[in-house]
Amino acid sequence: MRAAPGLSPGVLSPAVTLAAWFTGRRKPDGLTLRDVAAYVPAQIAGAIGGAILADAMFAKPLVQWSTHDRSASHVWLGEVVATAGLILLIFGLNCIDRASLAPAAVASYIGAAYWFTSSTSFANPAVTIGRAFTDTFAGIAPASVAPFIAAQMVGAVLGLGVVIAVYGRPAPAGDKVVVPHGEPELASS
Question: 151 phi and psi, to 5 degrees?
Fold first, then answer.
């Protein structure tokens, strides 16, 4: 799988992948739907694998469907806010040529959003699916997954809308979005 302009191999969220595809879809070097079709299942498989690995490390059953119900409008609103903020952060940093700050900024944002959102900031459809595979405090009941993902997609659209309102239409994200990659001189600039 190639590391397409606008998307780093370090991107773990289908919401970010879809936003990068949307902003770069008319550019010859932007993500294609074929790229998206490869990234998204890999992101989901990674999240499921991570949940299973975490259960194994804590001597829990490897797969135990979550019973943690997260189906309430205030929780979904938290996911809209968490995801919109994540998209604004990533694409906003790219708009001001500060994409190299994204790894630390994204980690800091997600850590903070855990505390300031009612949903504990999944902000990632792959993580949402992965967390259905564990019946720990971090889990999400399978019946709650679809509304959570819908809220995340609404958040992604709103986040892109805010990026456009603040910075103008974003150019397709460059090679430095989220995690620098490519030629070493690009990563060090």
Answer: -65, -40
pTM: 0.83
Kindly report the number of other CB atoms within 10 A of residue 96's CB atom. 10
Rg (CA), the chain: 16
Neighbours of 91 (CB within 10 A): 27
Per-position DSSP letters for the chain, written without gaps between them: ----TT--TT---HHHHHHHHHHHTTSTTSPPHHHHHHHHHHHHHHHHHHHHHHHHHTT--S----------HHHHHHHHHHHHHHHHHHHHHHHTT-GGGHHHHHHHHHHHHHHHSTT-----HHHHHHHTT--STT---HHHHHHHHHHHHHHHHHHHHHHHHHH-SPPPP-TTSSS--SSHHHHH-
Give the span between the Cα atoms of 162 and 90, in whole angstroms. 12
Tens digit of pLDDT for each residue in 23-63?
A: 888 888 888 999 999 999 999 999 999 999 999 999 999 99
Tell me the pLDDT tens digit for each residue of 104-158: 999 999 999 999 999 998 999 999 999 999 998 889 999 999 999 999 999 999 9
Cα 117 to chain centroid distance, Å, stands at: 16
Query: 74 with 110: CB under 8 angstroms?
Result: no
